[in-house]
Amino acid sequence: MKLRTDSSGWFAIGDTFSNDYFEISEANIDEILQRCLQDDIWAEGVNKAVERYDNNPWRGTAQWFSDMISLMNGSGTLVDYPFGTGITFQSRRHFFRGEPEKYWISDAGLCRACRKRKLTGKSAELYKAVADMRVCQFKKFIWRFHIVPYWEAKISDVNYKALAQHYGFETALLDLTNDFRVALFFATCKYIWEKDTFEPLTREDFEREPDEYGDPRYGVIFHSPNWMLDFLNGGVATIGMGQRFSQNSKKNYYSIDGGVLDGVAFQIGYQPFYRCQYQSGFAFPMRNEKPLQENTRFEKLVFKHSEELSSRVFEMMKGGELVFPNEGISKALPVLRDIQKSVLFSEDDALQAYEIDEASREHFPTFDDFLRDLRTLIIDGQQIQIQKEEVTYKLRRPEMRRINKLYDQKNLGKMIGRVHYTAPQRRRREERCRQIYGRLID
After folding, report:
1. What is the pTM of this model?
2. Contact (CB, 8 A) for 104 and 113
């Protein structure tokens, strides 16, 4: 199949996006990889535009809008989202998601977990509450590492929900990337749970008959142009957000997976742990959103697997190191996996799930109703327990020191580059620094 280019010079298959699958060849994949280089050049041009802005921040009214677009699409801009602030990494012009099978349904991990257990309505909302409480415990656990409070005091808010998603927690967020190479890696490689790493797919993996989950003989790439989904890009996504906000209360804060933000891509940006930025990750909320197979904003590209292609992509991404870094937090993996299976929570965990993560008021009109129903819940044969005291997860002191040392040695300024703060954003960081440390720190 010959790839057709769109107005940006990128590829497109059908004349319009639809729910049809379009089969592409390895030659087509190589052509798309070459076009990634064009997108890299475009991204570098945006960075140079930001540099010009830094050297001459006021170039007249006519140039102001272009400068603002460049800042938002460049690296190192502090952005105010409805759920907190974040620091951008480099934007590109397209979104992708790679999957190693042609699944019949592609949606967020939390949706898959509820579907597997045949949970709907109130029971699904209770399961989401448990998932949210596990993320809350993850947040409290990683706060013990020096880098996390320092990040909130000096750099930006931490997107705990998206961060947890990238370290194995169930959320109503779907991972997207703005780098085709990352998506291709996930479409041609498999995660090895025991090793917490990836390996290329083999014939044993894909030479199987289709089953209830999908067709393993094919990999899939979902594709959508940036303007269609990106909250920062001002197109359909932002217009849709404005309509949703106007229909809701005048809140300044929305949970990223509370439902109001469904169907819009939010850049995760730089985080205190590195997996999100290595994967050029975006969070796509799907609490009530339909699966990608039913979403006409995504183009569906399918290709036949081969061991040669999987090995080639694996080597291109340096054995997975360019996507799945072996970083400090990985040394706490046993604790993270314990939290992911937790059924014991504190009342504070429950309160955050109810208030911050916006538990359904239709099903749980009051917090007491919420607690009562949680305490009757049984998940995978285990009773949910809520206690007044905090639940603590222990990590041996030498391991804690070792992890802290790994992150303390990182040069955050070199990693991120120059950060663009507005005056109110800078004051907010100073306020947060005083809240955490009792004073301003260097």
Report:
1. 0.91
2. no
How distant, in Å, are the alpha carbons of 98, 166, 169, 204 from that of 191? 13, 13, 15, 15
Distance CA 366, CA 23 (A): 51
* CA 99 centroid distance within chain: 15
Measured over the CA atoms of residue 176, residue 177, residue 180 and residue 184, the dihedral's sign is negative
Cβ within 8 Å of residue 137, ≥6 positions away? 339, 342, 345, 349, 391, 393
**What size, in residues, is the chain?**
442
91: left (phi over 0), alpha (psi -120 to 50) or beta: beta
Nearest-angstrom CA–CA distance, 179 and 8 = 16
Token pair for 75: 């690296």
Q: What type of residue sits at position 292?
A: L
Here the tokens at position 176 are: 């997207």
Task: Of 92, 95, 96, 94, give the one whose Cα is nearest residue 43.
Answer: 92
pLDDT tens digits for 299-358? 899 999 999 999 999 999 999 999 998 888 988 999 999 999 999 999 999 999 999 998
**Phi, psi angles (nearest 5°) of residue 279:** -95, 5
The three state secondary structure string of the chain is CCCEECCCCCEECCCCCCCCEEECCHHHHHHHHHHHHHHHHHHHHHHHHHHHHHHCCCCCHHHHHHHHHHHHHCCCEEEEECCEEEECCCCCCEEEEEECCEECCCCCHHHHHHHHCCCCHHHHHHHHHHHHHHHHHHHHHHCCCCHHHHHHHHCCCCCHHHHHHHCCCCCCEEEEECCHHHHHHHHHEEEECCCCEEEECCHHHHCCCCCCCEECCEEEEEEEEHHHHECCCCCHHHHHHHHHHHHCCCCCCCCCCCCCCCCCEEECCECCCCHHHHCCEEEEECCCCCCHHHCCCCEEEEEECCHHHHHHHHHHCHHHCCCCCCCHHHHHHHHHHHHHCCCEEEHHHHHHHHHCCCCCCCCCCCHHHHHHHHHCCEECCEECEEECCCCCCCCCHHHHHHHHHHHHCCCHHHHHCCCECCHHHHHHHHHHHHHHHCCCCC
Give 51-88 pLDDT, tens digit per residue.
666 666 655 555 555 566 667 777 888 888 889 999 98
Would you say 226 and 95 are in contact if contact means Cβ atoms under 8 Å apart? yes
**Cβ(66)–Cβ(75) below 8 Å:** no
